[in-house]
Amino acid sequence: MDNYLQQLSENYLTDFSTISLYKLNSINLSVREDTKFIFHENILTSILNDLSPFYDILDINNEQIFKYRTRYFDTKEYQFYTQHQNGNKKRFKIRVREYSSVSDIFFEIKIKNNKNKTIKERFIFDGIIHNLDEDIKKFTFDTIGYSIDDLKISLIVDYDRISLVDKNLEERITIDMGLKVKNEFRSKNLNRLIIVELKQNRYNPRSNFIKAIRKYKVYETRFSKYCIGLTQINDSLKHNRFKPQLIKLDKILTHK
């Protein structure tokens, strides 16, 4: 654990009450509304102090910060990226996610529908996408219109995550930091960037998190780790739709 994460763990996370993975997983937000925020790491500690009375923190074996690795899959023509770039109301992400906190590996289909709801289907498997059960392969084809065999790894994202849950068990917050994006040719660190995702059954502007974040003049924004990550390492992809997010990102990464 690097010095920044060590300081967070020792000085800013100890005020939170803890919640177990079992209890966190009992909160059903597989169909939800997601609201995202990005900001520089220099205000994270102040935000955590504001949130500690209202949220519990996921704790597994006395750890509260966990390493994640996500492998994204796309077609050779980057069809799923293009769905985002073109502003399609219905779009997909296909990914494999691994956690330092658990040994299970998950195959996930993330669907954004035309009502702005996020639907996530996930399956435990051995980590090799072509070894998925035939029923899962069929479900994937029926959902996205592409065979597993049509897909390739397009991006790998490594990061550290803190997970919070409000006291009423109605919303979850993920705080991601230390992002590194890469493919087989290039990589880039996005070290100063913090990405927060608020997950609710229905958007509630009276959320204690919303109240806290607005004190720092941070407002919701569209932000996809997959799409923005690809723009950082693949110059050939059209990305005009993401220019507002890329301008924000550049300001964060160059801020002293």
Order of helices and strands: HEHEHEEHEEEHEEEHHH
Strand proportion, as a percent range, falls in 35-45%
**Structural class estimated from helices and strands:** alpha+beta
* Amount of helix: 25-40%
Q: Helical region count? A: 8
Low-confidence stretches: none
What spatial form do the alpha-carbon principal axes imply? globular
- Mean model confidence by pLDDT: 93
How many distinct beta strands? Answer: 10
Radius of gyration: 18 Å
Main beta sheet strand tally, sense and closure: 8 strands, antiparallel, barrel
| N→C terminal distance | 23 Å
- How do the strands line up in the largest sheet? 2-7-6-5-4-8-9-10
Description:
Strands 2-7-6-5-4-8-9-10 form an eight-stranded antiparallel β-barrel, surrounded by four helices. With 256 residues, it is α+β, with helices and mostly antiparallel strands. The protein contains eight helices and ten strands. The protein is 27% helix and 36% strand. The mean pLDDT is 93. It is globular, with a radius of gyration of 18 Å. It has helices spanning 3-11, 21-25, 44-51, 79-85, 134-144, 208-214, 225-233, 243-254; strands at residues 17-19, 31-40, 55-58, 66-74, 91-99, 105-112, 118-125, 152-166, 171-182, 187-200.
